[in-house]
Each structure stands twice: as C-alpha cells, then as structure tokens.
Amino acid sequence: MNNQSKNTVLIKTEAKRLGFMSCGISKAGFLEEEAPRLENWLNQNMQGEMGYMQNHFDKRLDPTKLVEDSKSVISLLLNYFPAETQNEKSYKISKYAYGTDYHFVIKDKLKQLLTFIQTEIGEVHGRAFVDSAPVLDKAWAVKSGLGWMGKHSNVLTKQVGSFYFIAELIVDLELEYDMPVTDHCGSCTACIDACPTQAIVAPYVVDGSKCISYLTIELKNSIPSGFSGMMDDWIFGCDVCQDVCPWNRFSESHKEPLFQPNPKLLSMSKKEWEEVSEEVFQELFKKSAVKRTKYSGLKRNIEFIKGK
C-alpha cells in the first residue's frame, strides 16, 4: 500500500469515527461542467436576492483559488434525519434546523479531522468549509462519489436518501480519488410534482427565488403576494421535495446528540407559534439555525401564511 492509499484509508477511518456518514475524495481543480450551469442559473436571476451567489465566481468553481496549492477536496456527509418530527397540525420548520446549528457542530468535527491529518500525516495545510464560503458543496459531493444530483438538486444516495449535511476539507495533500456514481432518479418526477411553489422548473434546476426555503429564510423583504396559499404551513425552510423522494424511505435517524430537538419544539401548536414572544424565540432557538430568519422574519412568515 503506497502512502496515498494509506493516508486515504486513515482519513476515511477517522471521518467515520467522528460520526460522519461517509467520506469521498476528489482531485481539486476547475469544475468545468458546473461553470456554464452556474452562469446560466445566475443569468436567469434564479438566485433571487441571494447576491452573494454572484460573488467570487472563479473561487466558487476552483478550490485552488481558495486554498493555495490544494490537491484534494475531502467531502463529508453528516446525517440529520430525526427520530421524531413535529406535531402534524402545526407550522413546520425544516428538519435540519431541529437541533443545534449545524455550522457549529460540523466545523468542530472538521477541525478535529484536520488536526488528526496534521498529527498523523505531517505538515498538511487546509481549510474547512461548511456551506459558508464560495464552495459548490453538492458538485464536490457528486464528484467524489458520495451520491448523484437528484432532480430536486439535492445530492441523493441509494442507501440513505438525502437528509444529510455536506461539508469539505480542502487540503494540499495528494490522496486517492473516488469515482462519481450513476444517476438513479430514472423517470421519477415525485419532487417536481410535489413542490408547492413549482420551484423545480426543470429536472435538476431549481428557481431559488420561488423556493419556500428562500422565501422563509433568505428573502429579507416581504414575501410576494403571488405565493399566498402556497406555503404549505412552512415557516422556516421546506422539506417537501425530500419527503416525497422514494430514496428517503431508507433514511435512518441520526446519532448526533447535538441535533436532538428541544422537546417543546416538536409539540408546539399553531396557536403557540402565533403567540411566541421574542424571549421564547431566543430561548427555543438559542443555538439553532432558525435564528437566521430572526424573530421578525419568523413572525412575517407566520402572518403571511395566516393571510394577514
């Protein structure tokens, strides 16, 4: 076994020990296939008010511009599928936001993995990325064989579906690279048919400006009246396209204690959501991704759904 093979096995074994569901590795370089796709998507203004998507176009497509002399992109998946979900008659928040904000949880695990690499292998430089820098997470996960891009534009895996976070370590270390897997969506259009706002405008293309996740989290202005009656009671994010996907029948609940939800969150009624005070909001979502929309944003979302 040569050094590259040995180091690759070492890294993947440690990733598993840290709780990652899977780890795939691809060669750092320019994402040729993604470049025209991203450009086209931006030209059609499908990013809505997410202006940051237009920034750092070159870095978004080439990790060697983010991490000097980088050789490998280590992609990691972390399961967040919950054992229990919210009261069915309540307002809904995306399952990924039930527990502690994933940015904190994953960043900590990535730092541990990088420290392990530096301790066991030697002087390796790298950076950790969790959905907060210009990195095309899904493209790298696909490239490194962790799954294929589903028609809803989420990465899908035969064994576990799509309820997982994607993160990366970009390092200046040569490793063994994985091969992409084949697409297994076939003729299924469940996600396209079920999207409440018809945001999946074509297979593999989501108009971000129509997506409920965008409308309830990213959009800072008022939600356009055209979406009235279409929000399906989602007040933070939306899981519809994932919930209807046949591959998610294989989802198994996560084992990450920090992703356990506040029990109060699961049992809340619509009336309790409508009466949430700023104090209760701060306490309920102390370390949660829901803070992203702020108290005022959550109230706006609830009022829009109520038709006020």
UniProtKB/TrEMBL annotation:
Instruction: Please give the pathway this protein is involved in.
Output: tRNA modification; tRNA-queuosine biosynthesis
Q: Name one Pfam family in it.
A: Fer4_16
Active-site residues annotated for this sequence: 131 (proton donor)
Which residues, if any, are the signal sequence?
Answer: none
Keywords of this protein's UniProt record, alphabetized?
A: 4Fe-4S, Cobalamin, Cobalt, Cytoplasm, Iron, Iron-sulfur, Metal-binding, Oxidoreductase, Queuosine biosynthesis, tRNA processing
Sites where the protein binds [4Fe-4S] cluster 2 = 195, 211, 238, 241
Q: Which residues bind cob(II)alamin?
A: 60, 131, 155, 166, 213, 238-239
**Does the keyword Membrane feature in the UniProt annotation?**
no
Q: Where in the cell is it found?
A: Cytoplasm
The answer, when asked if Oxidoreductase is one of the entry's keywords, is: yes
Q: Which InterPro entries does the record cross-reference, listed alphabetically?
A: 4Fe4S_Fe-S-bd, 4Fe4S_Fe_S_CS, QueG, QueG_DUF1730
Q: Where does the 4Fe-4S ferredoxin-type domain start and stop, copy by copy?
A: 173-205
- What EC number(s) does its UniProt record assign? 1.17.99.6
Co-factor: note: Binds 2 [4Fe-4S] clusters per monomer.
Query: Binding residues for tRNA, per the UniProt record?
Result: 220
Q: Where does [4Fe-4S] cluster 1 bind?
A: 185, 188, 191, 245
For this protein, the record's PROSITE patterns field holds: 4FE4S_FER_1, 4FE4S_FER_2
Cofactor(s) recorded for this entry are: cob(II)alamin; [4Fe-4S] cluster
What catalytic reaction does the record list? epoxyqueuosine(34) in tRNA + AH2 = queuosine(34) in tRNA + A + H2O
Q: Which GO terms describe its molecular function?
A: epoxyqueuosine reductase activity
Q: Which family does it belong to?
A: Belongs to the QueG family.
Question: What is said about its interaction partners and assembly?
Answer: Monomer.
Q: Which HAMAP family match?
A: QueG
Function as written in the Swiss-Prot or TrEMBL entry: Catalyzes the conversion of epoxyqueuosine (oQ) to queuosine (Q), which is a hypermodified base found in the wobble positions of tRNA(Asp), tRNA(Asn), tRNA(His) and tRNA(Tyr).
Name of the protein in its database record = Epoxyqueuosine reductase
Q: Which organism is it from?
A: Jejudonia soesokkakensis
Taxonomic lineage of the native organism: Bacteria, Pseudomonadati, Bacteroidota, Flavobacteriia, Flavobacteriales
